[in-house]
Each structure stands twice: as structure tokens, then as C-alpha cells.
Amino acid sequence: MDLVKSVASFWEREFNKIDTIIVGNGDVSSSEESLSLLKSNKQIISCDGALKNLISLRVKPDFVVGDGDSLDFADLKFANIPYIQDTSQDYNDLQKAFKFCLKKGFDNIALLGCGGLREDHFLANLSIMTMFSEKFNYVMMLTEYGIFNVFNRSAEYDSLEGMQISVFVKNEKLKLSFSGLKYPVLNRSFNWFWEGSLNESLGNSFQISSNGDEPILLFRSKMIKNR
């Protein structure tokens, strides 16, 4: 299978894991994969500030969730979309969307529009995804450059040969092992957040083993190193 077909197959497998998309008010239009996912007939939950952007892309969400501070109610009325208002100031709109998914039993989630525009929002959204991930069967964050996942236990992940991989963890009590990556790790603790970054997959999958159940952040880049 040539590289183009392999890449297309990788994204198809990832998207097949998803049944619900949460869209934040970040950058959703610059990624071909993001647009493909939005047009794939998955259920879409829009944070209130993202509605105008979705309408401009001719995408109609199934629900809008938020406190209304970033919502143009004319857009909501025009599109005739159910609005789930949560005026709590203790949580942001992404947290409210996650809570709505829990209430409705939506269990396989992709996050779009959670990066770009503001780095502080992006870091906060990664933290929120980490906090909520164990409550769902599968959660991914799709950015312009790749996919973030959170795992709490040993796991095998789909990849492509040459795919750039980073693992982020800062917990000296955890012992991690990597196999199937260019730079293997055996029962190693990470004292700094960067220490598991900038690795590379050697094939169509790799394994990460952990001796605990603390959350670990994984990034699989769209970048495929030429061989």
C-alpha cells in the first residue's frame, strides 16, 4: 500500500471510532481532516461561540451548549438548533459540553476547534480533555497537526511507519515502557514533561506500558518522516 493510501486508511480508522464531535471556538477550518470529520454525518455538539463558524462552513450541529455569552441568538434561531443553556460560571463551555455528553450517554468523542487562535485556551482544553477522558470510552482531540489522546493504562496505538510520536507525562512514580518506537523505553520514570517527546513509530502500531493508572498525554503527528 502506498503512503497516500496508508494515510487515508489511518484517518478512516480513527474517524470510525467516533460517534460525537464537540466543536470549540478555535480553528476548525484550516485542517482537511477536520473538515472531513465535520462532513461525515457524526453527531455534532457546538460550544456556543463556535456556532457562527460552523454556519459559515455550512455545517448544522445537533445541539448548542454553553452559557450564551458568546452566542448570536439570531444564528441559533435561524438554524433552528436545540440550545442547552448552562449559566454556571464554575465551568467553561467545553466542560459543559462534556457534561452534556455524559448525561446523554455519548461515549466516543472527537474534539475540534480546541486549538489555534489562543495558546492559553489550547493548554486549558488539553487539561480538560485529560480530566474527562476516563469517563468516556474514547476521546481524541484533532488539531491542524495531529491527534491528542489520553490513556490511563497500557495500550497499543495505530500509527504509520515514520509517524512522529510524543508522550507527555510528569510523574516520577510511574514506570513507562515504549515498544515499536525508534527510541525505546524500559521501565523509565519521567521527571519533566518533555522527556517522552519527539519519538517516531517504526511500523503500523506501537505499545506504551504503564505500571499505574495516572493519565498520560499522547500526540500522533500528521508528519510522516520520509524513509
Q: Could you outline the blueprint of secondary structure elements for this entry?
A:
Elements: H1 3-16, E1 20-23, H2 32-38, E2 43-47, H3 51-56, E3 63-66, H4 73-79, E4 83-85, H5 93-104, E5 108-112, H6 119-132, E6 138-142, E7 146-151, E8 155-158, E9 163-168, E10 171-179, E11 185-190, E12 199-200, E13 205-210, E14 216-224
Parallel strand pairs: 1-2, 1-5, 2-3, 3-4, 5-6
Antiparallel strand pairs: 6-7, 7-14, 8-13, 9-12, 9-14, 10-11, 10-13
Can you walk me through this structure?
There is one protein chain. The longest helix is centred in the N-terminal third of the chain and has 14 residues, at 3-16. Helix content is 26%, strand content 33%. The chain starts with a helix and ends with a strand. With 227 residues, it is of the alpha/beta class. The protein has helices at 3-16, 32-38, 51-56, 73-79, 93-104, 119-132, and strands at 20-23, 43-47, 63-66, 83-85, 108-112, 138-142, 146-151, 155-158, 163-168, 171-179, 185-190, 199-200, 205-210, 216-224. The strands form two sheets. A ten-stranded mixed beta sheet has the order 4-3-2-1-5-6-7-14-9-12, with helices on both faces. It has a four-stranded antiparallel beta sheet with strand order 8-13-10-11, with no helix packed on it. It folds into two domains: 3-144, Thiamin pyrophosphokinase, catalytic domain (Rossmann fold, 3-Layer(aba) Sandwich); 152-224. The protein is built from six helices and 14 strands.
